[in-house]
Amino acid sequence: MQPWSACQVGDHFDTVDTPSLILMLDAFERNLDRLMQASQGLRVRPHAKSHKCPDVAKHQIAKGAVGICCQKLSEAACFAQAGIQDILITNQIVGPKKLKHLRALAEQVNLGVLVDHPAQIVALASLMSGAKQALNVYIEVEVGGMRCGVGVEAVVPMAMAIVAATDQGLRFAGLHCYHGRAQHFRQAKERSEAIGHATGVVRQAIEQLNHAGINVPCVTGAGTGTFWHERDSGLYNEIQAGSYAFMDRDYGDNIADASDVIFENALFIKTSVMSTPRDGVAIVDAGLKASSVDAGMPATFNQPGWRYLKASDEHGVIELTPGTEAALGQSILLVPGHCDPTMNLYDEIICFRDDHVHAIWPISARGALL
């Protein structure tokens, strides 16, 4: 914990210490509403790896989301403890310690998990035998992300294995079909073509399962950068967008066309100028420990003539165009390059409305990597 807080509820924006993680609630809430409207009746299950914050999840559910996704078992446990009752872990769970925790969590909430190997099904069936409620098991299908997932040829035998384990506490819940790389293809045509390929794979998988007499209860996937394509395919029942609630500089680099659904920047890092060592340069107090740079440097927000050039541990170097001045103590807002890992750097998110601190939400699942 920090030795003191950056602010208290009720403080004016100008008095909040830096660097701090800032959420503008009006923009955040408009983003939540925008996704629900754009879902056109599909189930919305936002990905909580983007925020790791139960208060954010509760707001998403209050707006109509059916539950959340998590990427890690320990994340799911944190959200369950906060009262979230419907959770899909969009990952494979392997190893005796994790499986033990998975069984305990499945007794508390409506829980789902992914598989992409027959041995995982065997392990889950052994784990869940005698459980009070079934574990929802989804087959992860490789649709172009080149990460986890099986090819179409493996879907039917795996689904049959899950169905055969119904009396051992497993429930075949459907297919997980997410193309992560496509979210950040810069050209709209590239994103459309990538999801066109993905939905072709999904269609084949559904057809083969139906031919084998197996119903597909749900196809879940899709992200902030493409979900309208999955929506319009007629194949997906559920969308998992996560970054839409906040947005970041990397998503802002996508070139949109008329069909894209656009969200606002709601998440920022407030930082202050701590040094003006030479002409054309300002040093701010938000460096690598304040903003993830895996997707590139953060962007300055509504600050013409300022460009975040590079970062070290505790310093950010701002390049100023000729004629632009920076004053010691001057504060600016940065748009994180990638919101997900940036959230993981902070203990709390400071929520603003009408230029005052409205709430301070703990990022409870920060560091939940198990």
What is the secondary structure topology, with strand pairs?
Elements: E1 20-24, H1 25-38, E2 43-44, H2 54-62, E3 68-70, H3 73-81, E4 86-92, H4 96-106, E5 110-115, H5 118-128, E6 135-140, H6 155-164, E7 170-177, H7 188-211, E8 219-221, H8 227-233, E9 238-239, H9 249-252, E10 267-278, E11 281-284, E12 299-300, E13 306-311, E14 316-320, E15 331-335, H10 339-343, E16 348-353, E17 356-362
Parallel strand pairs: 1-16, 2-9, 3-4, 4-5, 5-6, 6-7, 7-8, 8-9
Antiparallel strand pairs: 1-10, 10-11, 10-15, 11-14, 12-15, 13-14, 16-17
Identify the notable features of this structure and list them briefly.
single chain; 370 residues; alpha/beta; Lyase, Ornithine Decarboxylase, Chain A, domain 1; TIM Barrel; 9-stranded mixed sheet; 8-stranded parallel sheet; 10 helices; 24% strand
Question: What's the short version?
Answer:
The chain has helices spanning 25-38, 54-62, 73-81, 96-106, 118-128, 155-164, 188-211, 227-233, 249-252, 339-343; strands at 20-24, 43-44, 68-70, 86-92, 110-115, 135-140, 170-177, 219-221, 238-239, 267-278, 281-284, 299-300, 306-311, 316-320, 331-335, 348-353, 356-362.
